[in-house]
Amino acid sequence: MSHNSFGHLFRVTTWGESHGIAIGCVVDGTPPGIRFSEADIQAFLDKRRPGQSRYTTQRQEPDQVRVLSGVMPGDSEGELVSTGTPIALEIQNVDQRSKDYSEIARRYRPGHADITYDMKYGVRDYRGGGRSSARETATRVAAGAIARRIVPGLVVRAALVQIGTIAIERERWDWAEIDRNPFFCPDAETAERWAAHLDAVRKQGSSVGAVVEVVAEGVPAGLGAPIYGKLDSDIAANLMSINAVKGVEIGDGFAAATLSGEDNADEIRIGGDGQPEFLSNHAGGVLGGISTGQPMVARFAVKPTSSILTPKRSINADGEEVDVMTKGRHDPCVGIRAVPIGEAMVACAIADHYLRHRGQTGRG
Amino acid sequence: MSHNSFGHLFRVTTWGESHGIAIGCVVDGTPPGIRFSEADIQAFLDKRRPGQSRYTTQRQEPDQVRVLSGVMPGDSEGELVSTGTPIALEIQNVDQRSKDYSEIARRYRPGHADITYDMKYGVRDYRGGGRSSARETATRVAAGAIARRIVPGLVVRAALVQIGTIAIERERWDWAEIDRNPFFCPDAETAERWAAHLDAVRKQGSSVGAVVEVVAEGVPAGLGAPIYGKLDSDIAANLMSINAVKGVEIGDGFAAATLSGEDNADEIRIGGDGQPEFLSNHAGGVLGGISTGQPMVARFAVKPTSSILTPKRSINADGEEVDVMTKGRHDPCVGIRAVPIGEAMVACAIADHYLRHRGQTGRG
Amino acid sequence: MSHNSFGHLFRVTTWGESHGIAIGCVVDGTPPGIRFSEADIQAFLDKRRPGQSRYTTQRQEPDQVRVLSGVMPGDSEGELVSTGTPIALEIQNVDQRSKDYSEIARRYRPGHADITYDMKYGVRDYRGGGRSSARETATRVAAGAIARRIVPGLVVRAALVQIGTIAIERERWDWAEIDRNPFFCPDAETAERWAAHLDAVRKQGSSVGAVVEVVAEGVPAGLGAPIYGKLDSDIAANLMSINAVKGVEIGDGFAAATLSGEDNADEIRIGGDGQPEFLSNHAGGVLGGISTGQPMVARFAVKPTSSILTPKRSINADGEEVDVMTKGRHDPCVGIRAVPIGEAMVACAIADHYLRHRGQTGRG
Amino acid sequence: MSHNSFGHLFRVTTWGESHGIAIGCVVDGTPPGIRFSEADIQAFLDKRRPGQSRYTTQRQEPDQVRVLSGVMPGDSEGELVSTGTPIALEIQNVDQRSKDYSEIARRYRPGHADITYDMKYGVRDYRGGGRSSARETATRVAAGAIARRIVPGLVVRAALVQIGTIAIERERWDWAEIDRNPFFCPDAETAERWAAHLDAVRKQGSSVGAVVEVVAEGVPAGLGAPIYGKLDSDIAANLMSINAVKGVEIGDGFAAATLSGEDNADEIRIGGDGQPEFLSNHAGGVLGGISTGQPMVARFAVKPTSSILTPKRSINADGEEVDVMTKGRHDPCVGIRAVPIGEAMVACAIADHYLRHRGQTGRG
């Protein structure tokens, strides 16, 4: 058991604090012969990197990843080949603004983990949120880049589908759009509405929540396992472990509670290729915890950034009542940067179950 | 790793199929000196037991639990004392209707795990759903009864808060009501509406989904751990592992996505007892994955029962297209019986984290 | 983590005390489609069963195993087919002599775990040693019978190679002999010497230690893993977990410490089948924690039975100094019954690594 | 599960190859408030560091450790305080002799893991042994330095007690001696004999095996757990995971097989402090897998270094028969440097069980 690891056969252990020397992770269990490059990982890190638009925090971090172990040179320039031994990934912390932490060190910012870390440990790294900072998620994105290579044909993509109360129109969904706006929004019109809305939120020093949808295509049928090794159960845990996430759903999710059995049934026929073909996907690609071969669909809700300019009532470590306001760098909607993180966490869960399925059944 | 275990220091491993000889679980890691009786466990099993109203399946199972190991006699009649060794709990299967399974053995019921178990394993126990049957959840409820005894002062209760599109009125919430209607509904008026609605659903041979809310009070502050050992992450996994669950949320959950940072902030003051006091609980009792000492609030969505009287298109194991209709015993809303199961899964997660916290910090 | 489980992909969780209602185990992770019968398991249990000669304890237990879950009927009478879900095995306790435990309940027998269980837990099942009784090992033997079926071509056998100071002559090793004497001795002449020696030991109410050697043939090359998943490391843990075991060695073991690098080297050539062929097996079938394809050879030392007729100085739970002598059933050499247990523990380790290897590499 | 992690609540994950950029480990589960410095860790690393005498390999590595996460500054210069989050330790590889690996890349050195890594993975880092190099053990020693701080009063020391056939005289055992000779030998006279012997071995380009004894004092009674969480079982696995180890024993170990029950019994009296006092320690400090409070005594056998100057028959990756001789840096007795590694592995096992015991029982 480790509080800082996830996965079983594809197992990721992360370490590091927001303002320490570096952050990193150890990716264990990668099959031998998997080919990737630092540039492949970097491409995903660059999607998550802060400071790329005015809608995310202005912290400037190059987030340059280094592969320290577990690989040999591949056939082409920069290509690496996994050897089956643990792959250590490391990212230096660069933009650790040297500043005076005496004020923040003892104040508990509402909505942050400051108070609970102190309740639990009695000591914490208060610089930039320490271990509870979203900075840790960079290592997940790096691990996810390797996970994607493990399952042949797997494609995991995510999109922001709601900011505050403004949701996308699903009929306008176009995956190509997600690279054309700073929100990973698959609906160009909604992206424009979000831009206007977030500008207002940002100017008020306020923040807003969001919903992210992750879709995994090319998931082989048969992944997942009864009863506590369900694929959707592991995906739920992985997504809920992302900072600020308050809800997770699979397929129709909470809307399934409002359906009748007739409407919720995904009927099955034999497809043109002689394989089972589902006529709908209310289930989100999983039945009884095991993948059906349909796209896996998961959504998660991200709460509004707790760091806001409005002073809020709180206490400090001395038990005194204080007002707390977050100055400095500001992220009006942390849900945006959660998009590549959600992709990575789903990819890791699928890679893990791919190996687990192969272990037990010899298939895959 | 085990696909049939959950928890780490308080660890439950379950076994058994719907129509096998028995079902059971091994509860490992219980501290020595915990006092309970078979009757304590039985009381929770009786809440989950089918056939108690016309709104749940008419399968008749006494669900009589036996404690086979891990205990010594206590001081009073029937009292048991845990010895710290594994506690084996067993429930005989009684109502295994002897019938002809030749038809169901090779047909895949839409919405059930029949097809995915076959995709994964190539062999399955098709009698009554086998391992994927909700019957397995009886063992979770039994384990939960022990979990409740481990954390001093812990009270875990759950209620059904929505059936189909009919939600309760939160102002009418009265915990005393949940024992007065067959739905575990905390709102007497809504319970009456549900009764009428479910009667109609049942007569049509249809089914409907539901939402369950679990509230844990008396959770010590400091339980849970960064980053992949978050209390809410483990609760999400535990709840998502329950049959037919499609979504999980903590505190405000998906509604948090629509809030501003100002509205979502749980401000903190010093309470009358000199301890931190939160002025609201949008977070649902957890910040950064660690409990705040407030009530833990989790909700989960249950899809409508897949077994319905309306024929649905499917295929069989021979790759032929067939129509499937579920005859016989029928459960119009499986969400009802999910209430005690949800309680048990949350209680187990909290007990596990109570021991994990004590292990690392020596506190608790 | 569980204190009562071992293995990862082939995972066994055991429960039960010497004088409780029953003992049992849950075998999780068995691949689907493995064929076996209760009679197959029973055959191994019968080897371990006490009371079969005057050299082992006279407790009379039929040790009849029942398979409660995880299987469907096979093609022939009694044949079972694993479904991939957990297999629960159960053995009723029959010979729980009803007697007065008031004396033993509070006295610590030297060499037994009585005192340490009380130091740890403060409460224990003192009847017949409770959880620390060798009775628990019956469930390991049952699990081992399934493990043997998982790896095609695997044959795991063990023999007693030393009792007290009397070791076998290796030149006389004949596997056929182990079924012809009550010691699992591969050397007929030594078996006779042991018979005479043990008769004397038994009459004196004394006891003696022993050494068991386990040989696994048909282990595929490539099982095991760096660094903490070494096959020999897991075998060492498995064997050391058997009651009364005080030492474990692989291949030449402690004798390797006395060798020169030249003498210890297992040279390699290309065999007649074009495959690597080792010219010796000092390594015992494992290099760097990974199997070579040669026979795996492990030995373990069993201390003399602690229950003897000579009174020994000890204390009781009240902190009083007492003399303790074990009356009643007596086992002069527990090492004898450790033979089938050692086989089972090695078979389980190999089956687990077979699945782990297949999971990571897709081979096997 | 991870093939590169050990421990449960005190959990260490290591990574890195002999000739990669760096090696390191993540130490997870350390309680908050543990105080140590990089210098503390360095002191243990310096004991293991090669090139310190003519009896160990001449590879020159400063083995300078850096603490990258999981700590805050303590009260004095260089002091660190653990925060309860993962502690990442890293050591740069400096002396990676740039040389031509074309010869070694495809030849299997007898006694090394070259062939089995290729059998398993089909690809390996052949530079200096890659992942199978003893270089990885530096990270264990670093982790062990933290483990020592977790259990109050714990002192773990080890000594070399045998080289080849030359064993120490136990009556001359003096812990002060181990720092006065290059062998960690507690017997000054034997150390002189070893010096002469090893000089001869080294000149011949040969090697020799050894036996290491680890003694842990200050282990609280009650650590360890039935049945598969036995303290001695975990110590056996930890020690067997060290490179070149072929045997492990606890207390009297294999010699216990030759004893009678009367001679093996550790009798118990009430000591001057009113606590149980054992009159001997054949058991090596553990009964039924649980610590007695006596010193924990474990020994392990290290095979002779496989790298020798005498050519040995082997094959290469192309299936051709070749002769292999190890040129260059040479370590006549790897057992010497195994002494601090053995200490570290035992310390880690005890720290892990200390936390596990505290988790389950609330004591410790």
At a glance:
Chains A, B, C, D: Pathway: Metabolic intermediate biosynthesis; chorismate biosynthesis; chorismate from D-erythrose 4-phosphate and phosphoenolpyruvate: step 7/7. The structure is a homotetramer of 364-residue chains. With 364 residues, chain A is of the alpha+beta class.
Tell me what the structure shows.
Chains A, B, C, D: This is Chorismate synthase. Chains A, B, C, D: Its cofactor is FMNH2. Chains A, B, C, D: Pathway: Metabolic intermediate biosynthesis; chorismate biosynthesis; chorismate from D-erythrose 4-phosphate and phosphoenolpyruvate: step 7/7. Chains A, B, C, D: Homotetramer. Chains A, B, C, D: Keywords: Amino-acid biosynthesis, Aromatic amino acid biosynthesis, FAD, Flavoprotein, FMN, Lyase, NADP. Four copies of one chain form a homotetramer. The mean pLDDT of chain A is 94. Chain A has seven helices and 19 strands. In chain A, 24% of the residues lie in helices and 23% in strands. In chain A, the strands form six sheets. A five-stranded antiparallel beta sheet of chain A has the order 1-2-3-8-5, covered by helices on one side. A five-stranded antiparallel beta sheet of chain A has the order 10-9-11-17-12. Chain A has helices at 38-48, 114-121, 137-150, 188-203, 231-240, 261-264, 338-361, and strands spanning 5-6, 11-16, 22-28, 35-37, 65-67, 71-73, 79-82, 87-92, 155-163, 166-167, 210-217, 245-250, 268-270, 276-278, 286-287, 290-291, 296-302, 312-315, 321-324. In chain A, helix 5 (231-240) runs antiparallel to helix 7. Chain A has 364 residues and is α+β, with helices and mostly antiparallel strands. Chains C and D meet through strand 1, helix 2, helix 5, strand 12 and helix 6 of C and strand 1, helix 2, helix 5, strand 12 and helix 6 of D. Strand 12 of chain A pairs antiparallel with strand 12 of chain B.
